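Proteins fold reproducibly. Next comes a concrete instance:

***
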Amino acid sequence: MSANTSNKPKITREEISLQKAQELEASSLRSLPNAVGPEKSILSSMLQDPANYIGLAEEKGLVRDIFYNPSHGELYDLIREMQDKNESVELVGLNQKLMDRGLLDKIGGTSYLTEIYSYSTTPAHFEHHLDIVKQKHILRSIISKCSEAINRAYEDQEEVASLLDEVEQNVFAIREGAEEETEASLQTNVQAVMEDLQQLILNGDQPLGIGTGYKILDSMSGGLKGGEMFVVAARPSMGKTSFMMNIVEDICLTQDLPTMVFSCEMTSKQIVQRLLFARARFEIVKLKTGKPSKDDLRRIKAAAEEVAASKLFIDDTAGISISELRAKARRKKKDEDIQLIAIDYLQLMRSTSKQAQNSREREIAEISAGLKGLAKELNVPILVLAQLNRGPESRTGGAPRMSDLRESGSIEQDADMVGLLYRSAYYADSEEERQEADGVAALNLAKNRNGATGEIPLTFIKGLMRFENSERRIED
């Protein structure tokens, strides 16, 4: 029995969804959207002029699952196979191959194959008919996913948040055409790598991804790249939020790229205040000790105009769930084409799944994996802050380690880069040492999946809440 089972053709996820939709079709006495005539027309064009139309169909994203009639999908796959093997795609040879594989009767016999071949009198309408077939497939996908959602809504009434997220993701995938062909070809990936290499040669020191404003970090990482997750971790009061907002400032204001900030700890007003005063290089403490000077006001006004005109989007939902964050990020990516997502901070987020309710470690793991998945789905870099445990407090000098990441090793596993932020003055034993170390900071790039690791020297200007590039050398 096992041998027979292994010889059975595999059923794709799309075919399973189609079966469910067809069951709905039978029960409702309504036909699913289809375009059998145009399906026959595009197959006819490929058989009459394979050199031109098989390749064009592949370029346009035509795959087997898009056909409503399974026989048409079977026939299309065989035509592509013959083309890939440099076999002549013609009626007699195709008929024989179908017969040899026991598929001829399944598609309707020789007479139906001949009917398909002669169906289109001219291939001039090929692209128009292909668009019709694809549109009908989208409609069937909508019906299938909605039918599935209805069934899930009856069965999984305690998993509302995760179900809502899944439904939205399915609809988003249909809209973006993600279900047609998600696997990039080898040639496409080789071309992308060669383009990166060319850009590296032409641009010299310029990062391949989005620059952060920190020269050594950009040199080591190549910039923030789509699909990657960069975790910046530190103990409380080290300046994580300031460091994140310094990067956001450079990307959103200096490079003028749309940016989304999720702040679980601070209000949107506090975030804007930090950004505005840091941009204006105005020490907020001056508001308590006296009035700003005319020069201060001029810089603040100029910074305010810059911030107001920028495409910075801030969501300050406290304890936001991973499913809610994903939904908001997807919409903003679609509406505003955001180029960076920054999150402050990971341990303040939550997961609403059943499995996460009884395990904080499992919850953090789900959030971490969800953020990495979102980075890949939207093809944007995600900068996420994280809290370290008390490990540094027990060490002389307080230098952090990657093992100090709180509550879950999955953060370390999911992240493409992990930076440990550190200020020496915080752990100084005496006032003299504290003054000597004042302003001395470093980002230990402890993990870098695609580049070098090591310490990056920084200068911290406390009054401005800014981390800046430092010429200081880190001793080995």
About this structure: The first strand starts at residue 229 and ends at 234. Residues 206-469 form a domain with the Rossmann fold fold (CATH 3.40.50.300).
